[in-house]
Each structure stands twice: as structure tokens, then as C-alpha cells.
Write a structure and sequence with these properties.
Layout: E1 10-13, H1 19-30, E2 34-39, H2 42-54, E3 59-63, H3 69-83, E4 88-91, H4 106-134, E5 137-142, H5 155-175, E6 180-187, H6 196-199, H7 202-211, H8 224-231, E7 242-245, H9 256-263, H10 301-304
Parallel strand pairs: 1-2, 1-4, 2-3, 4-5, 5-6, 6-7
The structure holds nicotinamide-adenine-dinucleotide (NAD).
Nicotinamide-adenine-dinucleotide binds next to helix 1.
């Protein structure tokens, strides 16, 4: 579709060696963009880029530590010399620190802010002059549902992601007159290595499933469509927004069936178990969607009425 075509556009993705950064890069490359995959881990990003080249994509890669302002300026400069322009910037690189506040030092707090938030300021400032010259640009920042709500034990991450929502509006205001849009994506729970620790806790995995109207976590590739939308002319009149990609988790409250299932512990209905084969509608909508029984055996019809 023409509105989503990125042929001739140059995209730079940070943190592209794995997870959502890789998924964003695939989506942009498939939409026709020339993509520069960057990451702090040089070997990993090279390996990833080789997979793109093998698949016939127009990509290259570079090591880039987004938390270092000097390296950011140098790295962006080199990419601009190589490609002449950067049309699309995906500020994706990020880290998480799961630690109680009283055990977290101010240095750790600053480090998370630096990698997750200050980096997006530095990257956007470094890339903007080229976008301004071309009177066109798309900046896409990865925030999180933790940019809207909070969770205990993640104060540094929550603060940084709330900051990304504000920075997104500020960038949109500053560069809008030059034809540059800036929007954010707030993912819910995706299967990536960032979530490895919580994925090992089946109770937590299940609680997300129960809490989410679509009754599942997301695959990393499910980020791609939103990235292409925000990178393309399909979103030409949209700026300063945060699109929440969480299958409705933060827009809904628990109904009685879900609440009961939450309290059910290991006795959860099979619909809620951490089994990838559970019969919940998948992204392609083919799997069956069956009524849900509460752990007490009553049909929780309101739960199945999605
Ligand atoms: N996975 C989720 O469920 C989820 C949910 C909400 C938001 N997010 C956000 O999406 C983004 C990507 O998350 P993910 O799950 O793919 O994470 P991930 O940990 O799997 O991958 C992050 C990538 O960023 C790179 N990186 C880390 N520090 C860097 C630095 N200083 N400079 C350059 N690269 C660096 C890592 O090497 C890695 O390749 C993050 O900003 C994260 O906060 C993820």
C-alpha cells in the first residue's frame, strides 16, 4: 500500500541487535526502507545484520552506545556521511532495573535515565539537523505501559519511561514546524530477553495473560506494524502521541472472572495457564476462543465476551 511504502527512506534503529529493535528493523526493511541497525554490542548487531542481508534486505550496521553523547554525535555523523540522510529514527535501546527503591543508588537511577531517556534526547538532537534540511523526518520513541502506570520495584524504569512520553511531546513541538513528527509506542508485555527474568516466574506470566483482554503476551514481530505506520505517510498528521500496544491491558479493569482467576494460583482454568498452546485467539485469529470458567467452576461469561 502506497501510504505505508518506505522505499527510498533511510532508517536508523537503536538497540537493534535483538528483541523489539530487531523486529522494528525487519518491519522497516520489509516496507522498503534502507535500515541501519545499531547497538552497543557490535558482534551481536553484525550477526543480526547478516541475517537481514541473507534475506535480501537493504541494511547495514554500526556499533552505537546511545548513552554516550559524544559517541552518538560521531555515530550519527558517520551514518549521515554514508547515506546522506536519516529519514526515520527509532529510539528503541533501553534497559530495565528491577530493584526495590531503598536498595537502588542514585547512580543506578541516573544510569537508567541516561540509557532510556537522555539517549533519546541526544539521538534526536543529533539526527534533527539532517531531517530539518530535508523538511521531513519521523522520530519514534519506545516508551512502555510503565510510561503511564507504575509497578513496585521498577522506580528507575518507570521514571525514565514517563520521561519518554514527555520528551516525545517536546520533540514534536520543537521540530514540528520543520515537517518532523515524533510519536511514541508504549508496548505492554512482549516475549523478549528484557523480560526473561519475569518470564521465569509462571505466576507473573499468567497474571499478565489474565489481566489482558486478548489473553496473551505479544510476539516481538507484533511491534512492526505500528512502527511502519508511524514511520510512513500513513501517519502524516499524527505527532506528539503515544500509541499503547498492550492488547487493552491498561485500558481495562479486572472483571469478577479475571479477579477470581488471579487469586486461583496453580488452580487456574486451562485458559489462563502459561502454555503457549492455550486456546486463545492468536495474531492471525485462527485458534479457537472458548468460554472461560472461573476456578470455582462458574462460567465467567463476561470474561469471554471480548
Ligand atoms: N519487551 C517488552 O515487553 C517491552 C515493553 C515495554 C517497553 N519496551 C521497550 O522496548 C525497547 C526494547 O526492548 P526489548 O524488550 O527489545 O529489550 P532487550 O533487552 O531485549 O533489547 C534491548 C537492546 O538494546 C541494546 N542496548 C542496551 N543498552 C544500549 C545502549 N546503551 N546503547 C545501544 N544499545 C543498547 C541491547 O544490547 C539490546 O540489543 C526498550 O526501550 C524497552 O524499554 C519493551
Amino acid at each position: 500500500m502506497k501510504e505505508f511504502d518506505l522505499t527510498g527512506k533511510v532508517a536508523l534503529v537503536t538497540g537493534a541487535a535483538r528483541g523489539l529493535g530487531t523486529a522494528a528493523s525487519w518491519a522497516l526493511a520489509r516496507a522498503g526502507a534502507t535500515v541501519v541497525l545499531t547497538d552497543i554490542h557490535e558482534d551481536a548487531v553484525r550477526e543480526r545484520n547478516a541475517e537481514f542481508i541473507a534475506a535480501g534486505m537493504d541494511t547495514s550496521c554500526a556499533q552505537l552506545d546511545v548513552s554516550n553523547e559524544t559517541l552518538v554525535a560521531q555515530g550519527v555523523d558517520e551514518i549521515l556521511q554514508r547515506h546522506g540522510r536519516i529519514d526515520i529514527l527509532v529510539n528503541n535501546a533501553g534497559i530495565i532495573l528491577r530493584k526495590p527503591m531503598v536498595e537502588t543508588s542514585a547512580t543506578e537511577f541516573r544510569n537508567v535515565l541516561n540509557v532510556n531517556l537522555v539517549s533519546m534526547f541526544s539521538m534526536s538532537a543529533a539526527v534533527a539537523p539532517s531531517m530539518i534540511r530535508h523538511r521531513h523526518g519521523r522520530i519514534i520513541n519506545l516508551t512502555s505501559i510503565m510510561g503511564h502506570i507504575a509497578r513496585a520495584g521498577q522506580s528507575t524504569y518507570v521514571a525514565s519511561k514517563h520521561g519518554v512520553v514527555g520528551l516525545t511531546k517536546a520533540i514534536a513541538a520543537e521540530f514540528g514546524p520543520h515537517g518532523i513528527t515524533c510519536n511514541a509506542i508504549a508496548p505492554g508485555y512482549f516475549y523478549t530477553e528484557m523480560n526473561q527474568q519475569v518470564l521465569n516466574e509462571s505466576a507473573f506470566h499468567d497474571s499478565v495473560v489474565i489481566r489482558t483482554p486478548l489473553r496473551r503476551w505479544a510476539d516481538a514481530d507484533e511491534l512492526g506494524g505500528t512502527v511502519v505506520f508511524l514511520a510512513s505517510s500513513a501517519s502524516a498528521y499524527m505527532t506528539a502521541q503515544t500509541l499503547v500496544l498492550d492488547a487493552g491491558m491498561t485500558a481495562t479493569v479486572l472483571d469478577p472472572g479475571q479477579a477470581a482467576a488471579m487469586q486461583g494460583g496453580s488452580g487456574l482454568d486451562s485458559r489462563f495457564q502459561a502454555n503457549p498452546a492455550f486456546p486463545v485467539a492468536g495474531p492471525d485469529g485462527t485458534a479457537a476462543f472458548e468460554p472461560i470458567k472461573s476456578p470455582h467452576g462458574e462460567l465467567a461469561s463476561q470474561v469471554s465476551a471480548v
